[in-house]
Amino acid sequence: MAGRFEATFEVERPVEAVFDYLADGRNDPQFSPRVLKIERVPDAPTAVGTVFRSSVKDAGMKTAREFRITELQAPTKIRWAEVSKNIVTASEGGYDLEPLGEGRTQVRIHNVLEGHGIGKLLVGLALSAARKDAPAFGARIRAAAEAAIPSR
Questions:
Q1: How far is CA 141 from its chain centroid?
Q2: In this structure, what are the phi and psi dihedrals at residue 126, rounded to the nearest 5 degrees?
Q3: How far apart are CA 83 and CA 106, in angstroms?
Q4: Coil, helix or strand for 60?
Q5: How does pLDDT run across 1-25, given as a tens digit for each residue?
Q6: Which residues touch 6 (CB under 8 Å, ≥6 apart)?
């Protein structure tokens, strides 16, 4: 079983700056408390093929995660796929950004969660938790982006 969750929110910053912030996955710990550490491989500007390796804590368990950037269209589209082997993975995900004018950006984040092995039994719980948290997750991304990106 696989399923999707998403959140849409506005950031009071220009689309180009929001894109740059979100494309650098090393910013994820600023809005995702489950991310304990993260690195970009290679340590160069994010491009298609860039991998973000992280250590995360989910449901009390620490796991290693690797996400590969599969598509990057500045300043409106970022796509990734999890390449690590865990019981529940984000097989695909991304951000869609839309400029709203006056230095504001609409952001939609989405992920498809997929269960593997015993994870096929757990993915429903993971999806339920992710969908429940989606509005708060969007609010955390907004707050972090607005704190990190200087206002004009």
A1: 9
A2: -65, -45
A3: 28
A4: coil
A5: 689 999 999 999 999 999 999 999 9
A6: 108, 109, 110, 111, 134
Q: Quick check: 38 pLDDT over 90?
A: yes
Classify residue 146 as exposed, middle or buried by CB count within 10 Å of its CB (0-12, 13-18, 19+). Answer: middle
Residue 152 pLDDT: 76
**DSSP secondary structure of 83-118:** -S--SEEEEEEEEEEEEEETTEEEEEEEEEEEE-TT
| pLDDT tens track for 39-98 | 999 999 999 999 999 999 987 889 999 999 999 999 999 999 999 999 999 999 999 999
Nearest to 84 by CA among 38, 22, 24: 38
Retrieve residue 48's tokens: 């298609």
Geometric angle at alpha carbon 43, from 40 and 99, rounded to 5°: 65
Q: Are 81 and 94 in contact (CB under 8 A)?
A: no
Residue 86 is encoded by which pair of tokens?
A: 């865990």
